[in-house]
Amino acid sequence: MSKPHHISDVEWQARCELAALYRLVAHFRMTDLIDTHITLRIPGPEHHFLINRYGVIFDRMRASDLVRIDQYGNVVGGNTEAQRVNAAGFVIHSAIHMARPDMACVVHTHTAAGIAVSAQEHGLLPISQHALKFYGKLAYHQYEGIALSLDERERLIADLGPHKAMILRNHGLLAGGQSVAHAFHELHFLERACQAQVQALAGGSKLIFPSEAVCRHTAAQFDRDEADEIIALSWNAALTLIETQRESYCS
C-alpha cells in the first residue's frame, strides 16, 4: 500500500515507525491481547498523536491502523466509529504528551514480570545491570482502578516527575522517550530488569546488592556521550527481527 494522499510524508514515517514498535512489542511477547497501548506524537504545532485502533492485535498492526487524535481524545479525520481508541489509553498517554514534550513516544505494558514487580512493596530492586539503568530515575504511581478518570492525569504526571520510566502499582509498566527508538530502549531494559528480579526472588536465596556508589556510577554510565548512538544501533538491530514484515506494517 502506498502512502495515502491525505497523509503527509512526516506523519506516514511516524506511522510506519510506530507500527514497527507495536510489532516488536509483540515479537518480545510484551502484549496483553488488545489492552495496552503505545503512542507517538506527530511532529507539528497541532499537538496530535497516534494511538492504536482498538481491537487490532499488535503483531498485525499497520500504519493505516493507527488513529490520529488530539490531546482531548478526539479522532482527527476519518470515520470515528471505525477508529475506536482505548479510553484508558487516552487518559494515561494524553497526560504525558501534554506535560512532557520531551517524551514523544510512550509505551504502556501489562507483562507478567512487570505486573509482579508492580505488586511488590519494595518495587524494582537494584540487583541487575538492567535495573541499575533506572537507579534514582524510576517513578511509581499508586493504582486507582482502570484509568478512565481525567482527574487521575494530574496525579500521574506529578508522580512521573522528570523520569522517563514508571511502575504503575498493581498494573504494569510505562516508559517513554524522545523517539520510538528511545522509548523501546527504556521499555526493553525495564522489562528485562523485572524479569530478572522475579526469577531472582523465586530462587529463594539471599540477594547480593551493589554498593550505593556502584549503583549511582552505573546509572550515570547509561547516560554517557555515546548513549544515543547505542540506542539507534539497538533499534536498527531490533528492526531486522521484523524486516520481512516491513511491507505489511508500513501499509
TrEMBL record:
Belongs to the aldolase class II family. GO terms for cellular component: cytoskeleton. GO terms for biological process: monosaccharide metabolic process. Residues 16-198 form the Class II aldolase/adducin N-terminal domain. One of its GO terms (molecular function) is actin filament binding. PANTHER family: ADDUCIN, PROTEIN HU-LI TAI SHAO. This is Class II aldolase. It comes from Pseudomonas putida. SUPFAM superfamilies: AraD/HMP-PK domain-like. It comes from the Bacteria. InterPro entries: Aldolase-II_Adducin_sf, Aldolase_II/adducin_N, Aldolase_II/adducin_N_sf.
